[in-house]
Amino acid sequence: MVSVFDENDNRPTFHEKIYQVRLPERERRKKAEPIYRVVAYDQDDGPNSDLSYSIVDGNEDGKFFIDPKTAVVSSRKAFAAGSYDILTIKASDNGRPQKSSTARLHIEWIRRPTPSSVPLVFDEPFYNFTITENDNVAEIVGVVSLLKSPFPVWFDIAGARPFHEMFYLLQSTCFKNCSSKGICFHF
Q1: What is the pTM of this model?
Q2: For the chain, what is the mean pLDDT?
Q3: For residues 4-29, b (16+ Cβ closer than 10 Å) or e, as one string?
Q4: For the chain, first and last CA: distance in Å?
Q5: 12 vs 15, 47, 50, 95, 135, CA distance in Å?
Q6: Which of 94, 100, 120, 142 could hold 50 in an S-S bridge, CB 3.0 to 4.6 Å?
Q7: Cα–Cα distance list, 6 to 15, 47, 50, 106, 139 (Å)
Q8: 148-187 pLDDT tens trace
Q9: Rounded to the nearest 5°, which phi and psi values hold at 97?
Q10: What is the DSSP string of 3-58?
């Protein structure tokens, strides 16, 4: 019998080196609310590919925290329009020796947009996406698109908290959370 073990020869890789998001101002919350999820992957196998996340810079006042396994950045603090935060997020693998990499999360807080009276018109009456247990993390599982709108369109993923943490909007497609072209859902 021969057992082959993976050598920890890959460091975690983020999908982006700099994530840029524009979010509406918000008031202080009793419970922490998600802000954004960064995603990294490691091409090693087994424990060498298990990742943990931490905020290593930009959080001196303790406004933010990150779930070490899901990489969801959250806060219960208030954020005023016009403020800007830059966080450095580190992904570390579980290999020996441990390898890591970092990415930056730029958060611009803007004035909450006034709801539009113009209804959104989606390309399809409903969307249905299938996800299998073998699909990789951060793969595109579907595209939701709508007809062009003269106003910025803000998307929110509704549902229970675990649902919020499983999906996020692909930054490059949605151009800082606003889009008239569509949303790519990742898991």
Answers
A1: 0.71
A2: 80
A3: eeeebebbbebbeeebbbebeebeee
A4: 37
A5: 10, 13, 9, 11, 19
A6: 94
A7: 23, 9, 13, 35, 24
A8: 777 666 666 566 555 544 444 443 334 344 333 344 444 3
A9: -75, 150
A10: ----------EES-SEEEEEEE-B---SS-EEEEE--EE--S-GGGG-EEEEEEES
pLDDT on residue 175: 39
What is the predicted pLDDT for the residue at 130? 86
Cβ count within 10 A of residue 51: 20
Q: What percent of the chain has pLDDT over 90?
A: 36
Residue with tokens 């989606």: 122
The per-residue pLDDT for 151 is 67
Strand 168-169's sheet: what is its strand order?
A: 140-144, 183-186, 168-169
Residue 11: half-sphere exposure toward Cβ, Cα within 13 Å: 9
Q: Measured between alpha carbons, how far is 59 from 64 in angstroms, rounded to an integer?
A: 6
Residue listed under structure tokens 């922490």: 32
